Amino acid sequence: MKPCTPSIEPAITVTVFNARTKAPIEANIVVQDGKFQEVLAVYGATASGQTIYGGAFERPGIYTLRVSQPGYRTTRIARINVSKDECHVLTRHVNIKLVPVKKHRPRN
């Protein structure tokens, strides 16, 4: 058995990109497992400065992610299975590509 660390690990981490430009974007991310629901908070950043969201700390489960941002189509991903070993949850990382919504031009 390996020694456990005192860290507290997120079940899920997420980065969000614009599907067309590949540019990083900020987003509202909600994870849900049954009656449990949480809005992911900023957890850190990649080496390039991309925001990493994380949450559901030390909570294994089968999650659904809902990612939204004004100007983009909401994305939903179901059945993200997070398990644990003898010490911590085994964090699942998800990259989300949000599709921009076409803006309607007013007719003259």
What is the share of helical residues?
Answer: under 10%
Could you tell me how far the N terminus lies from the C terminus, measured between alpha carbons in angstroms?
72 Å
Give the CATH class: Mainly Beta
Give the averaged pLDDT, no decimals.
93
> What's the helix-strand series?
EEEEEEEE
Helix tally? 0
Q: Report strand order across the widest sheet.
A: 4-5-1-8
Multimer state = single chain
What is the count of distinct domains? Answer: 1
Brief descriptors of the model:
108 residues, mainly beta, Immunoglobulin-like
Description:
The model has no long low-confidence stretch (mean pLDDT 93). The protein is mostly beta strands. The chain has a single domain (12-98), classed as Carboxypeptidase-like, regulatory domain (Immunoglobulin-like, Sandwich), CATH 2.60.40.1120. The chain is elongated. A four-stranded mixed beta sheet has the order 4-5-1-8, with no helix packed on it. It is 0% helix and 46% strand. The protein contains no helices and eight strands. A hairpin with a 6-residue loop joins strand 6 (61-68) and strand 7 (75-82).
Concise account of the structure shown:
The chain is mainly beta.
Q: Topology, pairings included?
A:
Layout: E1 12-18, E2 28-33, E3 36-39, E4 41-45, E5 51-55, E6 61-68, E7 75-82, E8 92-98
Parallel strand pairs: 1-8
Antiparallel strand pairs: 1-5, 2-3, 2-6, 4-5, 6-7
